[in-house]
What we know:
single chain; 6-stranded mixed beta sheet; about 25% strand; alpha/beta
Amino acid sequence: MxxxxxxxxxxxxxSGSLTADALAHLNxxxxxxxxxxxxxxxxxxxxxxxxxxxLTGQLSQVPEWIGDAQNAxxxxxxxxxxxxxxxxxxxxxxxxxxRERIEIMPNLSTMQLACSRLGLVWQDVRxxxxxxxxxxxxxxxxxxxHGLYALLQLLRQSHLTAVLTSPDNxxxxxxxxxxxxxxxxRYEIAVAARLQQADEQISGWLSVDxxxxxxxxxxxxVLIRQKPVLxxxxxxxxxxxxxxxxxxxxxxxxxxxxxVSLARMALKPDSIVWDIGAGSGSVxxxxxxxxxxxxxxxxxxxxxxxxxxxxxxASLHVSNxxxxxxxxxxxxxxxADPDAVFIGGSGGELRELIALCLQRLRDxxxxxxxxxxxENLATAVEALKAAGADWxxxxxxxxxxxxxxxxxxxxxxxxxxxxxxxxxxxxxxxDE
Length: 432
């Protein structure tokens, strides 16, 4: 049986951070694999003549180096920072070789050290990593293709987050992302840099604006905590919570209709949602809040309404939402396939949009449409029949109490037809 490859966790104090057992394995290794910084840091503990491989930018080569060394009967060690199983190389190599050929020898994680320096109980910390390629500066409306997207989504759900950074994806870049998302007043940031080195630096808690204006020594780890805020209802926000176009106030899917429409969309935490004809953005923005692991792609042709949508997005502190100012279906080909589609306005392209949405819907996906006119309802039903879709129509009539003298009366809202559809069996077979 081949001797296992040891993956040894190392801190920035070098060989002094290793247990006697780990140090003995490193001293006796014929092949040592690690990043350039760690190989230099541990040079005094690597035996003369040992074969060293710098994995910087060559992660895909590491399994081959390990396999070759094991096949040749050589002792091989991989050195990694902290705990190799915490956003480290350990999980990658276990997936390649299995635990029979890999032995993990963890060290303290940098997250643990950072929390100890700041006096933080860390069992509730959520851990994120942007220790990867240069993600670039954050842009509002970016989706999962951006390297900081997953971090931003996690920050909205976590009270205390530890972030493993990189020389490109730095603390100040993360702080600028929070500024752009109008979240600067909701978080504070601490940075622990060059842990266990002579020039170790612990910033203490800073405002987001302070962190955005500073540069921090590398390597570092960032702690981000949410300030206490009053939580809003997750579902069924009042109409007044959304800005609406004036003097044409009322370009909004009303609360009761919105609630039923969202229910019929059958949303899940990771749903991808299209909102066509966003209006004030009420349906899409509530969908984004209900799908914290998903994303909403919205389009609105009216420039004034598009500006209102963006204002509502900022007010609700929603980040998993991208708005396109344009006329559907232009640009929809760049969107991810949806689990749910809401059509609140069609701009005259209703038949084309219905056909496109049914074609793009994922298995089990729902198309939900709202209509206030008989003509649009008839057009939608004809298009759904022609497409062979499974569909149904719900007529919703709500009335709200209004004061009259010292009494109250019921005032009816406009009657709305909610049309719900999914791909038919024949269409699904055709697409396959």
